[in-house]
Fold GST N-terminal domain-containing protein.
Amino acid sequence: MTLLNLDYEVYPCPKGGTKYRQFVKENGGKLRFPYFVDENTGTAMYESVAIIDYLFKHYGKSGKTPKKYAHYPKYPVVALVGTVINGARGVRVNPKIVDRDEPEKLLNLWGFEASPYTRIVRGVLTELEIPFVFHNVAKECWQDQGPAALRLKPGKYVPLTGGKREKIVPVMGRVKQDIQVPYLEDPNTGAQLFESEAIVDYLNKHYG
């Protein structure tokens, strides 16, 4: 999804969760993940490989799945290792929130899927069963390489002209006029936060 720069809604279904797992079973027929729904075409499906093929077919430039993504391993070892390193965050529901109502409005999270800091926040959102819109902020040129505080290219940050990041700079409203992820906005409280540690503290305080 980051490669295609697609934004999407996430309805977390951790083990032991009670808010959205039943929807998957009732609408898909089985309790298996990921479960993907595209309201633009009325498509709903399981299986990572099938979903990847679908995304490239409908949202890729060529309509074909690149070879490196065409044969996704049955057991994604690298992804599993990442989950372990991350302390298995996002695998199981936080038992304290089982009876908590879902937020009135979806939260908004900006990041990209390979970002370790964004992954921490996504894990906590999953544990707390908080639905959110994930805004992908893919790196679009070599000037985007490196963290916000230490870009490989010194000087003022200049996003790709006409790119998605150029449109997001004013959304984040940073003094340096650059991009930093993860970035969270909660329309339910008006909160706007950078830094994974601050975001996690906020989520646990308000929704934990």
In short: The chain has a mean pLDDT of 90. The longest helix spans residues 48-59. The radius of gyration is 18 Å.
